[in-house]
Amino acid sequence: MHRSDQETRRELAHLLYSSMPLVGTISVASVVIGTVMAWVAQDPGYAVITAALVVIGVFRVVKLLMFEARFDRLGHADIIRWERLYGLGAIAFGLAVGALSARAFQIGDGPGVWMSFGLSMAFCVGIVSRVSPWIVMTSSAVLLIPTVVACLLQSEPVYRMGAGMVVLFWITLRGTSYRLTAAFTERIKAKQALAHQAHRDYLTGLPNRAAFIAALAGCDRPVAIIAVDLDGFKLVNDRFGHQAGDELLCQVGVRLQDCLEDSGVAARFGGDEFMLLLPGAGRDAALDLARAAVTALAQPFTLAGTRVQIGASAGILVTDDRQAETEALLDQADRALYAAKRAGGHRWCWADEDISVTTAWTRYGAAPALSPASGSTDVDLILP
pLDDT (tens digit, 9 = 90+) per residue, 205-247? Predict the structure, then answer.
């Protein structure tokens, strides 16, 4: 299942379990009505069914409380299991209320028939708002079938007409359930789309500044932050136009993601500046990533049919100071980046080294210039 579909199902399950007022009210009402019916009719069958309603009600309430406490830690498989547990509880409740109604018909308890029928309608009206059609249809079916069968067994035509009306009600319930579920699903997907837009760069599809900062704040271990800026990007825009510049940025985003290999976060901060986050990284891993990024971005790009070679500079910060302000950490990486650019670009610099000392730089060998007379077709244009 696609990740977005999993998130949608997760949200639907959360809505399913946000029914404490409904479940609590209908459970208490069913126990009260069952108790009254057993006391008035002095029928042991009512008493047994009421005891079952108490057990089922407690089970459902406890599961609601457990789900709320564990929701943040549940995976997709867990969500499916909890959805089935909710369905099991709803079906068991429907069976018990249906049995109460059947018992009332069996012993000829007129007031009991009306009370149990009212309880059945209340349950159906409440359950239809649950955003899981299979639960709605199954639980309401096991609840209404005993009533329909009991009505059909009566000799009076009015009862048989009543059975037909109950069937029509169940069919209407089915359509309403599917429409409500579709509406909730649409709303959840729209909410997800807005959240995605709020945390994604519209051009490259990479996480944006807000998403990067959130990921950094969520790290509870040492991290490497690598600020990356393109060398020669303005010349690309000037020569080929902004559309080619946008295409270049998209290609840069893909290459940076490839360098991370799903082990960290690559984000676009704006313009031609990118940030890489590598959780749990030491200096060696951070240097390897910076080197890989600078090397990858020095390889030719194809823009408007022309192979163009630019370059990139990087600033590297490795920190285990989780108390430091996020903006302060980003500022350190930025200063190292722009120090590398001032030193000529196509290189990286450590944020914790003296940037005034020439030996603090580790130079990346820039591609040699190609003259028009060389006849090379590998690179048509090299931009500093």
Answer: 899 998 899 888 888 778 999 999 999 898 888 888 889 999 9
The token duo for 28 is: 């208490």
Determine the Cα–Cα distance for residues 316 and 297; give it in Å rounded to an integer. Answer: 16
Q: Tokens for 304, please give them.
A: 């408007």
* Identity at 274, one-letter amino acid code: F
- Encode pLDDT of 65-95 as tens digits: 999 999 988 888 999 999 999 999 999 999 9
CA atoms within 13 A on the CB side of 42: 0
Angle at CA of residue 27, ends 21 and 33, nearest 5°: 130
Is the per-residue pLDDT at 378 higher than 80? no
Q: Is 345 left (phi over 0), alpha (psi -120 to 50) or beta?
A: left
DSSP H stretches of helix in the chain: 3-16, 20-41, 44-70, 76-106, 110-127, 133-152, 157-198, 209-217, 233-240, 242-260, 283-297, 326-342
Residues forming beta bridges with residue 265, ordered by sequence position: 277
